[in-house]
Amino acid sequence: MFYRLRGTLIHLEPGMAVVECGGVGFQCLISLNTRRSLPRQGEEAVLYTHLSVREDALVLFGFASISERNCFKMLTGVSGVGPKAALAILSELKPEQLAVAVATGDSKSLTRASGVGPKLAQRIALELRDKVKNLDGAGGKRALPVGQVSVSSHADAAVNALAVLGYAPADAAEVVAKFDSGLPVEELIRLSLKAMDPGSRGGK
Question: Is the model's pTM score more than 0.85?
Answer without folding.
Answer: no
